[in-house]
Amino acid sequence: MEQNLTKKDLWKLFMRLNTMRITLNYETLQGVGFMRAIAPVLEKTYTDKEELSKAMKRHAAFYNSHVNGDAAILAITAAMEESTGPDEKEGISALKTGLMGPLAGLGDSLIKFTWVPIVGSIGASLAFTGSIIGPILMFILYNIVNMGLRYFAIVYGYKKGVSFLNDNQENNIIQRISTMANVVGLMVVGAIIATIIDVQTPLEISAGSDEAAGEVGENVISVQEMLDQIMPSVLSLAVTVAVYLILKKTNGRHAALIIIIMMVLTVALTYFGIL
C-alpha cells in the first residue's frame, strides 16, 4: 500500500482531531467534525473538485465514537482513502460504522473507567491534604496518556492501515484489551470505595451480663467491629451501590437532588448517633 502522507499531514490530523466535538450536533453527532479533520487528506488525495465534494459529503454522515477511538479510525480511514479505488469507497463508510462502536467501548474502558479513576484518586488524595499539586498532577498524568494515545493512534494507525483489521479479526485484539481494561477498572473502583468513601457507625449493642462466667457488667458489642469482621468497608460499599442503582434507574436526572438528600441524611444520622 502506497502511503503519501507526511509527518506534517499526520500532525494536521492530530490537531484537527482535538477539535472534532466543537461541531457536535443531534443530526450527525461528530460527522461534520470528522469531515473537517480528514479534509487535508481528502484534498491531497482527490485533485478533481467533484470527487473531493463527494468524499467530503461521504465523511460528513453520521458518526460517533470515543475521541481516542476517533484517532485510530481517522488514521485507518486516511490510509484506505489512499489505497482504495473509486468502486471501493463505500467500504470506507462501512469501516467507520463497524469500528466506531467497539473503539468507543475500548476508549471508555481504558480512559474514562480506568485511567481517570486512577489519576483522579491520586489527585484527590493530595487535594484532601490541602495541596494544590493534586489537581495539577491529575491534569498532567491524564493528558500524558490521553494525548499520547491520540498521537500514537494517528501515526501507528496510518502506518498499519487496513492490516490492523485483519489482525483483529484473527485474534480479537479489541475485545481482549477491552476485557482487561474492564477488570482493571473494576479493581480501581473497588479500591476507591474502600479508601475514599468512609461510612462507619458508632452504634453498640448491649448484650447484658454473663452471670455464669462470673461477669457482672454489661457486654457491649460494637456494630462497626462486627461488620468489619464480616466484610471491611461494607457500609461504604452499600451506600455506593444504593446511590449507583438510584442514578441508573433515574438515568442520572436527579443527581443534584440525590447529593442534597445525602448531605441532609448524613447530618441527621450523625446527630442521632447512627453514623
Automatic annotation (TrEMBL):
<feature type="transmembrane region" description="Helical">
    <location>
        <begin position="179"/>
        <end position="197"/>
    </location>
</feature>
<feature type="transmembrane region" description="Helical">
    <location>
        <begin position="230"/>
        <end position="247"/>
    </location>
</feature>
<keyword id="KW-0812">Transmembrane</keyword>
<keyword id="KW-1133">Transmembrane helix</keyword>
<dbReference type="Pfam" id="PF03613">
    <property type="entry name" value="EIID-AGA"/>
</dbReference>
<feature type="transmembrane region" description="Helical">
    <location>
        <begin position="139"/>
        <end position="158"/>
    </location>
</feature>
<dbReference type="InterPro" id="IPR050303">
    <property type="entry name" value="GatZ_KbaZ_carbometab"/>
</dbReference>
<keyword id="KW-0472">Membrane</keyword>
<feature type="transmembrane region" description="Helical">
    <location>
        <begin position="113"/>
        <end position="133"/>
    </location>
</feature>
<protein>
    <submittedName>
        <fullName>PTS system mannose/fructose/sorbose family transporter subunit IID</fullName>
    </submittedName>
</protein>
<feature type="transmembrane region" description="Helical">
    <location>
        <begin position="254"/>
        <end position="274"/>
    </location>
</feature>
<dbReference type="InterPro" id="IPR004704">
    <property type="entry name" value="PTS_IID_man"/>
</dbReference>
